[in-house]
Predict the structure.
Amino acid sequence: MDSASFQFVLFGLAAALLSNISRSRVWRSVVLMAASLVFLWLLANNPIVFLPLIGFLLLGYAGLFLIERGLAKSWVWSLLAVILVYIWLKKYTFLPEGIFLHSPYFTLGLSYILFRVLHLIIEAGDAGEKRHIGLGAYLLYTLNFATLVSGPIQRYDEFARDQFADEPIVLGIRTAGLQLERIVRGFFKVNVLAMMLHAVQEDALAQMSQPLPLPQKLFSAFRLAVVYPFFLYANFSGYIDIVIALARLMRVRLPENFDRPFSASSFLDFWNRWHITLSTWLKTYVYNPLLMALMRRISSVSLEPLLGVFCFFVTFFLVGVWHGRTSEFVVFGILQGGGISINKLWQLGLARGLGRKSYKALAKNAIYIAFGRGLTFSWFAFSTFWFWANWKQIDKVFTAIGIAQWLGVWLAIWLCATVVLAIWEALRAALLSIRTSEGPVLTSRYARVVYASALGLAAFVMTFLLNQPAPDIVYKAF
Amino acid sequence: MIDSMAQSDACKMERTKEAKLPRRDFILLPVIGLLTICLIAVFFESIAWLLFPSSRTLGEDCMMFNDSSTGTGPRGIPNAVCWEKIPEGERTRYRFNSSGYRSEVEFRPKSAGTYRIVLVGSSFPFGMRVPAEKTFAMLLPAELSQRTGRNVELYNEAMAGFGGYPNIVERRFKDVLAANPDLILWVLTPWDLQKAATNWPFHEEPANRAVKESWVVKSIRKRSGGVLDLTIFRLDRIRVVLMFEHYLYGSRSQFVKSSLAQGDDDAGFLKAEPSAEWKKRLLQFDSNDAEIEGRVKAAGVPLVVVLVPNRPQAAMISMGEWPAGYDPYKLDDELRSIVTSHGGTYIDILPEYRNMPNPEQHYFPVEGHLDADGHGIVSEILARELTSGAIPALKVAAQPQVAQEQGR
């Protein structure tokens, strides 16, 4: 139930159906609360395991309560307390083993709940914001079953705007049809595409330690590096498609989390398209305040751009580190932060060297964009080794072939990604240019029905007939 | 492309009253959907039949599984010839000699200087789904003759289906010894042990199918309570399912996962601690093997037992790692212990699979038997093992250098 399974989709559809019995916001909130509690119960039906989560939620609410009572300074302490308790509950490995709770407890979705709680506390602490959030609304927002497991990370005001609206947003047959199509698409991505890509990755990983001829080994290395980003995209975005569609059927608009990330022409652009709500949250609550604080302290105009680079590094280092408790994710964070910083420095250096006008012209050049896209994909593919592998596996993989051979593989990945992604972009643009008065032919409702029917059949064959369980949703673990 | 357009469409709709759907779309859209599904199903089923054709006849048509007239278990129809083409295999001929065994030649008295091996077992040594000349039953004697410089001949008295069940092997040992063998080679597979406790004759004739009843079909049948098992909708006749399985099981990791999900009956032997049912099967084997060993000792003929891994087992051994609670070598260890406790000779070939890249590719992915390449590999391994001292009469003085390190 905690992944993009048929049971989860049915559960969500049932909740949406119930929710639409009445337009009353009370009814819709009651249904959402009931569905969220039932969802939690189905995931772990021993109430004891929820005690730490309940404690965490109450701590967050207590912080809000104090801020609402005018204890403005308490927001910093509330923030710190919430973060420290989160680190303790998640058992980060830099903390001593002895201080953790040893009995099993529920932590699914805690990372996402953290962001929501911090967001509420920070916004409450903002002098301009004065609002009361009742306990019910707080629990609805933090425990919403549609966003519990893997996000997206929604702002409270956006949630409240839809959930507590007197008049719910429109849900006609066209919208419902679009959401059903999106559910089918998401289901296919997770249960078919991600499953197949995961199998390719596992096979390639096994082949790295087999006594194969060098060309086959190099091909295994190539496949291993290239496949994982696509697997992660299919796995995560597929789940997001399902929850966004289910929420929309319950008349709540969730923010988008992906916007064709492999079309990004730079690593900076990539993080505007990949896990958008996470990077937006960290940019809002880490990058912006950190940059403003540094600029207040360091008044040098020439250093301003470098301050920006530093803040980017810190922000995206945290993006990386948020993903896991172990040292591998520290490296993952360094690679994300490093990639962003180097990208920014490159842009600054090029603009300074060529002049703004020339740099802008270069940035619009199709070949420059294509190479940038390829390099962005290659860097992300490289960094994800520290995302999915442990140190033992990383050692096994990177010592399976020599350094020179690995460099050759990465060069090949860069070149192939450049060409393939450029062809894909051109093909996409060409296909979307076939239009009628209503829009592109390939996105008309008739084309969508064909598309959804085909994907639905494929997903049905794979999951029901072949009874192949899909790999778990990766982001559920964070 | 659909992703970004969906977002744009959705935003526009949410701000304004949603445009009504034309009435015709209430019929047209479902019809388009159904038509799409039908066209895709027909298209892929056609492709599947093109890529994986099969014959109406099977090798099993020349076999009698429940004929109790001889008392020796399943046998071939004497002097019969059958042809088959299974979806994953090549066109295969089965010729049975007058004794009812799959052989191109008649069994005759042993000539002087000939070293005769009699092969027993079930469908793997029988060479099911593979042309006779490509089976290890035909390749092994040639290989042994070349290595030893002796005239080695092999009588294949293996029988497909149930010929390898320990209680069946025990029944036909009179026939085996009547061939005056110098060596009896009993090639086992996990499937033989799975059926160790099965009594023959059986209550019903096993169904012959061009497509082996896959786990898919068994699973659906079980889950639907037999509802989907209608004459007009025989799932085993839907070729596209086999096609998907064939390609899906080309992925070793996916195949191993699927195999381990099959339940104790099929995959229990891969567990580190055998279940009660598998322990019972091993006890049955112990009893049958004791009887067989007693007979061969009395006849003064050496018996060599060897376990050929099935596809999931071969894949797991080659991968070198497996989920906690599993051990693909466990069955091998148990069999070795049983056979040697009765004074028999056990050849352990599983370690050979450890350094073999992708050995599971030498099996039919869905059908499960060894393909021609797989038979070649088994022949080579057996030839090496038999001539390395396990059987003094076949020992050669100098062995070719083994390039790969053996071991677990």
